[in-house]
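Q: Convert this sequence to structure tokens.
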Amino acid sequence: MYEFLVQHQLDIMLGLSAACLTIAVLLLITDFLSKRRKWILIMMEVTATLLLFFDREAYVFRGVSGKLADVMIPLSNFLVFFLTSQIVLTFNLYLMDLLVVEGKVERIPGRLKFSGIAAIMGMMLSILAHYMGLYYYIDADNVYHRGSGFLIAYIVPVICPLIQFTVIVQYRKIFSKWIFTALTLYIFVPILIGVIQIFLYGVSIVNMAMVIVSICLYFFTYMDINDTVEHAHQIEIENMQGERKRMQRLFDQTAKAFVSAAEKKDEMTRGNAVLIAETARKIAQVTGHDEDYCEKVYYAALLHDVGQVGLPDSVIQSDADPEMLDPEILKAKPLIGEEILSNITEYPYLSQGALSSHERYDGKGYPNGLKGQDIPEIARIIAVADGYISMITRQHHHGAMPEYLAREILIRNAGAAYDPEFADAMVKLIDRESKAGADETEGEPDFACGDYRSYIARGIQAEQKIKKITFECVLHPEASGGLCGPSFILFDSADKRVHRDEKSIEEYRYTEYGEVWFDGHMIQTAARKTEVTRSEKKDGAAAGESGSYEI
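A:
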């Protein structure tokens, strides 16, 4: 390694000088540092460049005769010692700036003041040493030799950095990891190399080390600034996210207040807008849309019916089926809603949802008779959610439907009233929530038997072992003979439900084997062989009396 340095040190010194000067130029045009710190760093880099350059010149002209050599040899050797103390002084200024700016230190530590004075004295002593031959002398052949006081030249470069390091350790908490690492390297690498330099003559490893740590100081400062910028950017992002959340809450509260005001015109549907919005968001999630889009769907669905504020109360609270109303009245609500929401220009999807959510997939909707994919997607999602919530909640023109019946209507109207993709997604949601909330006892609430198959209970799994089903039955006082009791349907279906329309029968592979009544009457369909054994009721079940049944 030593032989390599001796052989190539001039090239290495030239390359390091060029690198250091390049960094000084970069610092000159940079804007990410304060003016004072930038000029201190430029001074450090220029000083390090000159130090290594003149050290190299001392080697180049060593033993060379001529007028130029007679000037360069003493000048170069003088500047090497002079600039070494100047580097200590410049580093001292850099450290003081860090304490004042980063650490908000009001009073500069006395140790730094002492180091600064010592560095200035070192520079002055190098001038005296040049004329006194204290550090070195030049013989008649222009060859450099160490003087009797050579070691004195190392007092400032060794003692002052150690004093500076005590200050660095004291104020460790104000420095970032990058700056602390750079300061530590700047202190100890030259000292360590300086000790080695005492025993190695003919190689300027100390000055090389000074230039290297000066270059490192720039890069570590840059990395520190980069971390600071990233941290500030992160804080800015967090602030923006916080502001966005506050704006989101404000928008949410404003939208719900607006919807609440609109719903006051019809107390029966109060709260439906939120249910529709939540259902629409679930549909959007199930069909693979991202969170931002799902939020758009939610608010478009929440506000899609605000147009009812412009309708007369007599129309809103009418018991007539909406499909029987005057088409112009039907068109009024979405048009009014679109007009109101179009003023919110930042969110155009709100007005789209209000205008087109009453369109039908087959083109028979209103107000514009749009068909299929011509209907905005958000409006197609809202149409399914609105249709489902309207079915399972009490309306002026109908009562609340059982969930299974609303499900069947969705299946039947997929491709007609509703987009089949979103109708299918709603059916899957119904099935998922129904399964999650299913009663393990497989019980069923009270129900009344009216017209044939007017009410169909949830299916009960029939396994290889015997399954017993019991219930209490009370005959209606107005019942007068005939077949008026409940029956059991034996069927197979992918969703454990009875189906009656061809589309759902095909989709869920529905097969019905037969139907059995308590009087022993039976209809056999897909089953090849069925046997019915009828036993007497445990209790009488005359009109108005209860009876216990088991099958």
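The longest strand covers residues 511-517.
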